[in-house]
Amino acid sequence: MTIRIAPRDRATLEAEVARRLGAGAGFALATVNLDHMVKLRHDAGFRAAYARHDLIVADGNPIVWLSRLARRPVGLVPGSDMVVPLACAAQAAGVSVALVGGTETGLRGAASRLVAEVPGLRVAACIAPPMGFAPSGAQGAEVIAALARSGAGLCLLALGAPRQEIFAARAREALPHLGLAGIGAGLDFLSGAQHRAPRWVRRLALEWLWRMLSQPRRLVPRYARCAAILPGLAVQAWQQRAAAPPCQDDPAGR
User: Fold this and answer.
1) What is the DSSP string of 122-178?
2) Domain that holds residue 151
3) Cβ proximity of 71 and 99 under 8 Å
4) Per-residue pLDDT, 250
5) What's the pLDDT score for residue 252?
6) Are 201 and 207 in contact (CB under 8 A)?
7) Is 111 domain-assigned?
8) Are 229 and 41 in contact (CB under 8 A)?
């Protein structure tokens, strides 16, 4: 599956989110990485949900490197890095924020930290779905109803893939005014439930190694599957490079 990444960089994404929040126009934002690419190959529901997202950015250095190989360069925009900027955009637009995912304790911690980081921000709801949350079933409908009651204009989703993307696509249709952003472990990092790699590790593009060593049982198999598809993706990127001229600058990031 070919993923069309747009906007292509963080600055363009922030401008587009600010525009949409200011206009009361909703959106669904996904942050693609190699783990998503693995899942997209085998999950038709995930592919359908991705196709209904308005905005997709590169959350992972391999995606950035592949884009350069294809002569379609994009910038790195980790979902975890976007939590505070997205909250700032919501505060500037005068809309409140809802947090969905994780535990009630973690959400309260993340909300407190966000309010401290972004003075004037209003957190309208903190929703911790039950274990085994089914975004396409009755539980998903209940969360959508809670979001509608909250009056939030922006929802930060930390449900994990593919749940957060499937839920975002569904909620985007039900609540067209609402911005929905999948930010992965961003709320856990914010609350302190998980510790992110030091900045110097991230600068060396080794955050994946830091995470794998901290949670080997869960992440070694995942990263092995990611490594297995990388050669094929590189071949596809090279074929795109050979088939088309370099991408020209586009202020819209499209």
Assistant:
1) -EEEEE-PPTT--TTSHHHHHHHHHHHHHT-SEEEEES-TTHHHHHHHHHHHH-TT-
2) 10-196
3) no
4) 42
5) 38
6) yes
7) yes
8) yes
Predicted model pTM? 0.91
**pLDDT one-digit tens code per residue, 203-247:** 888 888 888 888 899 899 999 999 999 999 999 999 988 876 655
Q: What gap in Å lies between CA 203 and CA 123, rounded to an integer? A: 32
Look up residue 87 and give its two tokens.
């909250």
By three-state DSSP, how is residue 56 classified? strand
CATH of the domain at 132: 3.40.50.10700
Running DSSP on this structure, what letter comes out for residue 7? S
Rounded (to 5) percent helix, strand, coil in the chain: 55, 10, 30
Count of domains for the chain: 1
**Cα 119 from Cα 90, distance rounded (Å):** 11
Give every strand in the sheet of 179-182, ordered side by side.
Answer: 55-58, 27-32, 179-182, 154-158, 97-101, 123-127
How many helices (H) does the chain have, and how many strands (E)?
A: 12, 6
Q: Judge contact between 159 and 170, C-beta under 8 A.
A: no
In a domain, 101, yes or no: yes
Closest CA to 102 of 90, 89, 111: 111
Residue 14 in domain:
yes
* CB of 171 closer than 8 Å to CB of 181: no
Does residue 5 form part of some domain? no
Q: Please check whether residue 41 is in contact with residue 200, taking contact to mean a CB–CB distance below 8 angstroms.
A: no
